[in-house]
Amino acid sequence: MRAPQALLLCSSLAVLFQPGSCQPYLRLRPSPSDNLPIKDIIEHPDPEYDPKEQDLDDRTLRKKLGSNFDPAFMSVVAPAQVNLSSPDPLHRFKVPGPLPSELKKLELGETPYGARLKMGKKARRKFLQWLWAYTYCPVLYTWKDLGIRFWPRYIKEGNCFAEKSCSFPEGMYCKPVKSVTKTFLRWYCQGWSRQKYCTWIPVQYPVISECKCSC
């Protein structure tokens, strides 16, 4: 299943430097993709293109980012890695919440032998709750280090659990269906050697916000 075009929130920009530059291309952000999470940016290792200590003043950068600073998904310092979401495969057997409307309307149909499957209301409710727990796809969050050229440096990134099939019978897997966009600051340099000019610019970073069992 292709992700909706609305998910293509992240564009790519590349700056072409003059011949002889030690940094021919500087990728500001990942390329558009139907696949989430987005791929890591391949950074040029030259420390000359890193922000210096005076460029990392917390008060100045917070003011520049303004209301886009979201402490629930961003951190200036390395957060303690805690169990934000359990990747335990048995998570799907835990009741995730109310039954979705599509499951409530589900027709259980006939058996392979043509007989109509009869089930009491209580048994049907329990079966649908089990089915909902089995096919439920939570978003698993972990903190990710974006590197010194992003501020805030750490983002709480969402992923879909896809180690086992989420369908019955098997064949479907948890995949991202929605994302939200978080605005970060990206250290951006133009030019080369002593002629270069660097500054912080805002860039958007998509974070998976919903996963769904699909083909």
Keywords:
single chain, 215 residues, alpha+beta, three-stranded antiparallel β-sheet, 8 strands, elongated, Cystine-knot_cytokine, Noggin, chondrogenesis, signal
Global morphology = elongated
Q: For this structure, what is the CATH class of the domain at 5-84 and 145-156 and 176-207?
A: Mainly Beta
- The proportion of residues in beta strands is 25-35%
Mean pLDDT: 74
- How does CATH name the architecture of the domain at 5-84 and 145-156 and 176-207? Ribbon
Class per helix and strand makeup: alpha+beta
- The helix/strand order is EEHEHHEEEEE
Helix content: 10-25%
Q: Order of strands in the sheet with the most strands?
A: 3-6-4
Structure summary, number of beta strands: 8
Q: Could you outline the blueprint of secondary structure elements for this entry?
A:
Blueprint lengths: L13 E3 L8 E3 L30 H8 L8 E2 L25 H4 L16 H15 L3 E7 L4 E2 L2 E7 L12 E18 L6 E18 L1
Antiparallel strand pairs: 1-2, 3-6, 4-6, 5-7, 7-8
Protein name: Noggin
Family: Belongs to the noggin family.
Organism: Eublepharis macularius (Leopard gecko)
3D architecture notes:
There is one protein chain. Helix content is about 15%, strand content about 30%. With about 220 residues, it is α+β, with helices and mostly antiparallel strands. It has a domain at about 5-85 and about 145-155 and about 175-205: Ribbon (Cystine Knot Cytokines, subunit B). The strands form 3 sheets. The chain has a 3-stranded antiparallel beta sheet with strand order 3-6-4, with no helix packed on it. A 3-stranded antiparallel beta sheet has the order 5-7-8, with no helix packed on it. Strands 1-2 form a two-stranded antiparallel ribbon. The longest helix is centred in the middle third of the chain and has 15 residues, at about 120-135. The radius of gyration is 23 Å and the shape is elongated. The model is unreliable at about 1-35 and about 85-95 (pLDDT under 50).
